[in-house]
Design a protein that fits this description.
Elements: H1 2-27, H2 33-57, H3 62-88, H4 94-116
Length: 120
């Protein structure tokens, strides 16, 4: 049981780290209109994935967990989308965003498996 709790805490920490990295990225975006619009979307989804993961951890039933973890998946995937737009629109260099993208993608893969293993 302690291993499961430790793993959950590691994922909470990982999601919070992603959110903090997104906040710092947003703070360093160019002040152009397009960068700020995409940045605000990124800020919303990148912080929402962490908040919703914490909420999923407090779920009172498998059905509630499934529902909340599905939101985490959506927000995490959306975060990846906004990161892709930042480099594809040449607002920021891909090399500057790649580590965050990989970390976010890794988190997404784990969360998808967690949802698949949930009995509704």
């Amino acid at each position: 049981m302690n291993e499961k709790i430790d793993y959950i805490e590691q994922l909470k920490s990982k999601s919070k780290n992603i959110a903090l990295r997104v906040i710092r990225l947003y703070q360093n975006l160019p002040k152009t209109g397009d960068a700020q619009v995409i940045g605000k979307q990124l800020l919303r989804s990148g912080t929402s994935l962490a908040a919703n993961y914490r909420a999923a951890c407090r779920a009172r039933s498998n059905a509630e967990f499934f529902s909340k973890i599905s939101i985490v998946i959506e927000e995490t995937d959306e975060t990846m989308f906004w990161l892709e737009l930042l480099w594809e629109a040449q607002i920021m260099k891909k090399e500057l965003l790649q580590d965050l993208y990989i970390e976010t993608e890794s988190f997404l893969k784990v969360i998808v498996v967690a949802r698949k293993n949930t009995v509704k």
